[in-house]
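Troubleshooting log. The previous structure file for this entry was overwritten by mistake, so regenerating from the original sequence record. Sequence copied from the archived sheet and checked twice against the printout by T.R.
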Amino acid sequence: MMNNLHLQTVQKWYPNAKTTEDTINKLLDVIENKLGLKPNLLMHADSMCCDDVNAIQYPPRAYEMLGPFHMGGLNGYPFAGITGMNAFAHHVPEDGAVVVFYAPHIGITKDGTIGEIHRIGQSENSACCGAAKGALGKLLNNQIEAGNITDLDYQMNTIEQIFLKQEERIRSAENQIFEATEVMYEAINERIETLVSKANYPCKYVILIGAIFINGDKDMGSFCSYKRFDYIDLETRKTTSLMSEFL
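Regenerated output below.
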């Protein structure tokens, strides 16, 4: 009953969200039913934030696939780039598929507060995603300089520039951290598409899953809201959506 209450809280923000456990179970079922591939033929890469909460809440069943190869840095942007994409692409079984899961993350507390979680061993809530909230704060305080990307804080500066390009949209949003996370998803999705187009895959399929990864409080677990579930047949180059089967 408690899990259902938590899911209902999350679904007020993300109506199609499911528990992470349910999403990975359904994901693997759909791939096996539609493509005939079991987890040991799937080379898994993720582009998720390096926040420790994502490691804590990572779905155990994902480890049935090969990997994961971690492409993401702060807030899930694929900072590993084309070198990273090509590296894990050449680890895939020839009769299998590459599975790329990418998602910015955001916290939602038990009481429905978005952009925060209550972490293990802490007495107060903390930001989630901290990088996104930090960049948002700088945006709202006019502290981001266009084109300013430094060696010392390259990843954070990149997020700041992504937000700056969508400043009006974020400022005018009803909930700014929600909207900033949507902006981040779109930037990640665009970059993943570019990287996929430039990589070579010695296998049958490339499977792309784009989502929002939702962290809950320490005793809530995590949730996931899928935005995209496509596979590319590398022989025909045809892209097919599996979202209807997943949902």
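Strands lie at 18-19, 42-47, 66-70, 97-102, 105-107, 116-117, 126-127, 205-215, 222-233, 239-241. Archived copy saved in two places this time.
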